[in-house]
Design a protein that fits this description.
Length: 469
């Protein structure tokens, strides 16, 4: 029976007349990012009726309580500069709390399930600086011991069934071992986190941990688990759920306690095999490629690199959001100069359309992307987003002036306090941004650039130009 009130009609599958697709995908890390990307692409696939998602949260029950009464349905609001578009997304068919380990294990062990996707954030992987599992992390060390005892039979049988790993990868390994024991067949594991080589990172971490836990599991992982790398690009800002629920009600007549707001632009690139099948994501606009790195670099260097420039320089010029900073001609010129360097390091792409799309996205005033938030951890971000291009340009015998100007903007932000101070550098030492201060700051990003005597003058010239503009 439809739940009708004076305010509207509560979302549910009976209310909208939608069937429930079979549970074929399990997701860990349910949030707005997943719902604006994987859930949206799955709902738009030509064979969407064959692919339902069982979604597990991180640890909070908030989304369980909001989405379960709606049968997993939610509204995706595409927020363009000239208005909103409202789409009902039916691909999530069941929502569970992430700490419900038995439910997660049972879902992954189901032979009908073909794919396990992850959005657990960089911190959720609990890796050491070199990329291996951080065995100094008490939670990681505890899970390795727990799983070793549970999965190798050292512990009693009831402990095997009752194991409760606290880390995300620990829960994934427990679930994969249950799938192995059940003879449920191969599975694809897809990391959708914003990390370079995310699939390789997950594969190496799981292989390392499995080798410490169970030889049988380690062997099965190599034979039966395909790890897929992805690059995802869609800005999905934090929202006031109450305000957006009211907007959905006004536009559609549906009561939705869990809407998601995102930009119209979307891009999803995947590389890897799906041994048990997958949705026809290509029909929804996804791309499958043999080599993911160029696509990752395009996004990291151009979108994220420009964000770092706008966050550091924009704040020193009084801006608070991306949409106003990009319309500041000085900021815009610096971004374009950086993109010129990027383009030379991405020779296989025709970037004209992508650059134009980035500018349109940045200028959207209805997607509020705050510069102070983007500027957090800007030293690490500059290392990943700007330094590799600078090194590539210098190795090719070019000046890398766009990168030099981006680094100069970062230095001005650090001095102004709108970007964090790198470790080991005192604020008093960089007040004048003299030669020694510039070398120290470049060294905080990359030792090779700091030792490149031909690069430093370009940074100095850019600082002078920015300070006098």
């Amino acid at each position: 029976m439809t739940a009708a009130t004076d305010a509207g009609v509560r979302l549910s599958r009976p209310a909208v007349g939608l069937p429930t697709p079979p549970e074929r995908i399990v997701h860990l890390g349910l949030g707005a990012f997943h719902r604006a990307h994987q859930a949206w692409y799955t709902a738009r696939a030509s064979n969407a009726a064959e692919w339902g998602i069982v979604a597990f949260t991180g640890r909070s029950r908030d989304l369980v309580d909001r989405l379960s009464p709606q049968d997993g349905l939610f509204t995706l609001v595409e927020r363009a500069a000239d208005g909103d578009r409202f789409d009902l997304i039916p691909s999530i068919v069941r929502v569970e709390a992430g700490d419900d380990v038995p439910a997660f294990v049972a879902a992954v062990a189901d032979p009908q399930v073909a794919i396990l996707t992850l959005t657990i954030t960089e911190a959720g992987y609990r890796l050491a600086p070199g990329g291996s599992p951080d065995l100094d992390d008490p939670a990681v060390a505890s899970d390795v011991d727990l799983l070793h005892r549970a999965l190798t039979g050292v512990a009693p049988d009831d402990t095997t069934n009752g194991a409760r790993p606290s880390t995300a990868l620990g829960r994934v390994l427990l679930a994969l071992d249950a799938r192995r024991r059940a003879g449920a067949g191969p599975i694809a594991l897809v990391s959708c986190d914003n990390l370079p080589d995310n699939g390789g990172l997950v594969r190496r971490a799981l292989t390392d941990l499995a080798g410490r836990i169970s030889p049988d599991l380690a062997e099965w992982l190599g034979e039966s688990v395909s790890v897929v790398s992805t690059s995802i690009d869609r800005i999905t800002p934090a929202i006031d759920a109450h305000v957006e629920s009211h907007a959905v009600l006004e536009a559609t007549g549906w009561l939705d306690d869990a809407p998601v707001v995102t930009e119209p632009f979307s891009d999803w690139v995947l590389s890897g095999k799906f041994p048990a099948g997958r949705p026809d994501w290509e029909s929804a606009g996804a791309r499958f490629v043999d080599e993911i790195a160029p696509w990752e670099n395009r996004k990291l260097w151009m979108l994220n690199g420009a964000h770092t420039v706008l966050a550091t320089l924009g704040q020193t010029r009084g801006h608070t959001v991306v949409s106003t900073a990009i319309d500041d001609q000085l900021c815009r010129d610096l971004v374009e100069a950086l993109w010129d360097d990027d383009a030379r390091q991405l020779p296989d792409f025709d970037l004209a359309d992508y650059r134009a799309a980035l500018l349109e996205r940045f200028r959207n005033p209805r997607i509020e992307h705050r510069l102070a938030q983007i500027a957090l951890d800007s030293t690490t971000k500059a290392r990943l987003r700007i330094v590799p291009v600078a090194l590539g340009e210098r190795a090719a015998g070019r000046d890398a002036t766009g990168c030099a100007a981006a680094i100069a903007a970062w230095m001005l932000g650090v001095r102004a306090g709108t970007a964090p101070m790198p470790d080991g550098i005192e604020p008093a030492a960089i007040v004048d941004l003299d030669a020694s201060a510039r070398k120290a700051l470049i060294g905080a990003l990359d030792r090779r650039l700091a030792e490149d005597v031909g690069f430093a003058p370009h940074v100095a010239d850019a600082i002078t130009a920015l300070e006098t503009s």
